Amino acid sequence: MKLSVSQELWVNETLEKVKSKMLFVAERNQNKIPYTVENGVFNDYTDEKIYWWTNGFWAGIMWQMYHVTGVNLYKDIAVKTEQKMDKNFMMPEKLDHDNGFKWLPSAVANYRMTGSQESRSRGLLAAELLAGRYNPAGHFLRAWNEWGGEKHLGWAIIDCMMNLPLLYWAWEETGDPRYRHIAVNHADMAQTCFVRPDGSVNHIVEFNPETGEMIKSHGGQGYEDGSSWTRGQSWGIYGFVLSYMHTKNESYLNTAKIIANYFIANIPVSNLIPVDFMQPETCSWEDSTAAACAACGMIELSRYVKEAEKHIYLNAAIRLLKTLYEKRCSFSPDIDNLLENCSAAYHDSRHNFPMIYADYYFIEAMLKLADRELFIW
Ligand code: GLY
Fold this sequence. Notes:
The protein is mainly alpha-helical. Helices cover 53% and strands 5% of the residues.
């Protein structure tokens, strides 16, 4: 990545801080699969929520750290986490569109790093299960098994763009084009049904599961229907760039640009990202995951756009990351989380708290800037 001298210094300094903090964090959390913290101490989803969609991110952090440091402790924790997650394969009602989030940063990362055939099998099983959610009438991968206590057979969500790389990987790994067909059909559907003319994206789109006809959109984890849930915008940016990277279909790159342009135009003066770009001005709820994930997508985007456009996306990404670094990062070795001020959803009881995938995407983004990441997606 072409950076200025001062940017390079900042990237290296940040990575050194991450490295020295993560050794303490990994050491004392070897047996956990964290989601958030209570009083600075990681919680554990091993027993309570082994199926949770974010569980792969802990292994992902461990693989990134192992890749960049070679410290075996990270590898051991990642492998242990992946093995624990096998329980989820026997919980069909807790397997959904999120198999990519779960098994790309865990099993597939392991296979990429070590060549483990057992991990390859896990990745392929997860891909097969994801492909099984495809609805050929509407050309979409069905989202959750239930949401708000109800089954929604015809729901698709923008987040799923980040799960498509599991299908692209399975295609690349096996040569079976079924996986690519399903991923591409879903991405094409998302271009038409999720991306709005101004470059913002819907969170949920509801289809008639029998006919495939689009019925309507829903606000989902955002403020309201028609608003712009920021993490959804981030999933859209990064997800479409990834579809471009795997297929070389230029229209996906263009879609990623359109969503990124909308995102950049709406970054507040503070450079801190709200939960929804359309939430009331008086609301101070933020989502650092949206900032970190959008930064990852924009850094990748900057690699593929025309020379004259590269700085637009790279500078925006650096602006987001520097702000997180200065205002929302804790490098204290005594506190387990790295980032603060995340929100799972606008209409949730809890806001501005740490979430593990903010840490994951922040670390991935910094490693991208240093050209030292393990490619996960
Ligand atoms: N994929 C679920 C979320 O972003 O909250």
